[in-house]
Design brief:
Four copies of one chain form a homotetramer. With 224 residues, chain A is mainly alpha-helical. Chain A is 62% helix and 0% strand. The structure holds a DNA duplex (21 and 21 nucleotides).
DNA sequence: GATGAATGAGCGTTCATTCAT
DNA sequence: AATGAATGAACGCTCATTCAT
């Protein structure tokens, strides 16, 4: 992305963190290296102690920012979806044609991600990999319902509802707009996962194959 | 299901377990109560110690059957898919019409599950809930690739390939058969998850809505 | 008590604190809310962090006043005994009859306490409960001897010696004046503790039963 | 004590421990060295980790026997009271004269303790010191009431009730039997504490002074 | 003088696992 | 084959305290 947006900051629900990691140097290091480390060793093996070692800081300092590693993952996921949402709004703003709008939205969500210079301390490529591999763990817990009530997933849900709205504009008579919207989101992640880890379960090998697959599926489904 | 099948046994790849849990009373208790306990407290909080307490046996005995709790989850998932595969084969066998065949397959995979009297020690309703809530944790690990090589996911993959084959029979020209097949599998689980935990992200509220949604999507996608 | 004494201040040995908590608003808030909080959660669970949160101040500020929570407890105990001593002196001053004097002293020490309007920021009822439940922890430590040398318990000891003196005046031949005096002090606390927590170990249920019990015991013991 | 009683075992309420420490060598070492270590460094500084180091065993093994250090202290206190109770029963059994009986009981409770050869792994002298210095911490907690309900203090309470019964036999008209009984128990400990740490608050310096003091006090109090 | 941020150390606990029976 | 006991290692977290402002 261009650098016009240098001052923007992805806004995250403030009861996900204890202290805003964007508010200090240490906070930003926590974000930067948690992404690197989770990608390296997986979320299961990731601990605040190891992160502390990596950033040359005591784990107790990290507790000033996040109550536990689970909330840190929720934060990273939220940031990811906030970042995608930003791109989606930017790319679809002012596009009059509903099909074109939805097409661009699917593209943003399902394409291969590249680094974004606007957020120096965040490696979006690694983060995307984390979201693909681990983010379901942020909601597949016994506490989903409470966390949902606490607004942990607002950005994700807003994304789904934006898609839903676009689908409805394309075809007001289509019955399963919400399910289709959430399927777009989930399929985007899942197909990328398979491509990486279980390639025999996908045709997504070539560039943009996933995007094309989803677009075809969505548009034939909602065609009047 | 009827009870004609009383003697059948779902065959599970034998390097998932150390000792076949179907081969002893203790083994069957391990399976029975691991399902109950994981459903109760979640896979994260589930430990062999707690399972041992529940079945009145020492945790070390459980190690005779499974190397660790992760493999036990792989076993349960495999069993689930094996069970579904059985139903799928049974329901589609001898159906000449390709569309009808695929339609029945989707139905088997995505419908709400009920208890199956053929497997007394397994509560299929709870198991389905576990697969919906937790099974992604069985492959979302750093070790997927190795485990795939070890054949942990053969049944799942065979299911995908069966679907793929049916899709191809319906329309030999459709390009993304594998992706569509894996999307059917994943969407079936995901929509049920949303229905349960984040209902605002699905239209799947009514009976069979998920099945209808998927069928519509699939058939419009592959329509010649 | 009447309000004639508005300007009095209980004098506490100044090496118990770093900075006199009576010398500032923050100091008084520390005293006020430490009493409330210790009563609420117990001394064990009480920390400067929690106290800081309660008074809307950083824990590091509290360290300006007290080196650690143990010294704060010593301070509170000392304040309690200083407060009791004041009442004792006030109530026995000018009483010529030795038995009457001792009787009034025992009364002061063992009666149920009520709030004293002279010290607005201190809730004497809660403080009494703390002294009953927790104050032994202020001297039951490996450091008693050193702390005694440092004068941490002067007020308490002065109280014992005042009682001792009164006992001796009643009966100059009684041999165990000091032990009896310290037993009066300890029994007053202990019986109140039992009344509250293990009532089957006391007859102290009715009003003033503890006072009557102690008086009877003391006077029969020292009777010539 | 003589060695006639070699086979006796002090019976402790079995929900104080997870596994009976008398049932294994490791368990007995835990008891033996916890007494030594608590006496050495104080209960506050005592941790299972340090105990583990001392007995050359991992702290996790200790958790097999006691849930936490607080319960271990409850166990030690209970053992102490059980041991005293045994002596008390033994010393008063068959004594017809009520005053003599009570006198012997007070003696048992308040005298200086010496090692008892019947319990090889327990150093009764150190244990007595622990009970004097630390045991109040076993009941001065926010959880007393619940723990009382759970029977943690049964032996202590039985001791009080035995004393109470003896007092009543001496003088059926005395009103405060329970309070006097609990005062005997408490004063015995407290005077020994003072003798050791704050000797200016006691006359208990000479041998048996505490015993004599208490006996005089009790008998003059209940004298008809 | 009061505060906010950061830290090191250690606690209590649990887990997965092994060993001996 | 199944069990019970024991262990090492690590986790999550909190505490008391210090430093810089």
């Amino acid at each position: 992305m261009d650098r016009l947006l240098q001052n923007i900051k992805i806004a995250i629900n403030d009861n996900i963190y204890v202290k805003d990691p964007e508010s200090s140097e240490l906070g930003r290091r926590i974000i930067e290296y948690s992404i690197v480390l989770i990608d390296e060793i997986g979320f299961e093996a990731f601990t605040f102690r190891k992160l502390g070692e990596r950033i040359g800081s005591n784990e107790s300092s990290i507790y000033r920012y996040f109550e536990n590693k689970h909330k840190l993952l929720v934060y990273l996921s939220s940031w990811y979806w906030g970042w995608l949402e930003y791109q989606l709004v930017f790319a679809t703003h002012g596009v009059p044609e509903p099909e074109e709008k939805l097409s661009r939205a699917i593209e943003i969500i399902s394409r291969n991600k590249v680094e974004d210079q606007n957020f120096g301390h965040i490696n979006e490529v690694l983060l995307t990999r984390i979201v693909i591999n681990e983010s379901s763990k942020s909601y597949l817990t016994k506490e989903v319902k409470q966390e949902n009530r606490d607004g942990y997933f607002v950005i994700y849900k807003r994304m789904v509802h934006r898609l839903e709205e676009m689908i409805r504009t394309c075809n007001p008579n289509y019955k399963y707009t919400t399910s289709l919207a959430s399927t777009i989101m989930e399929t985007s992640l899942h197909q990328h996962f398979l491509k990486e880890h279980l390639p025999s379960l996908t045709n997504g090998g070539e560039d943009n194959a996933t995007t094309t697959f989803i677009k075809e599926m969505v548009f034939s489904t909602i065609k009047k």
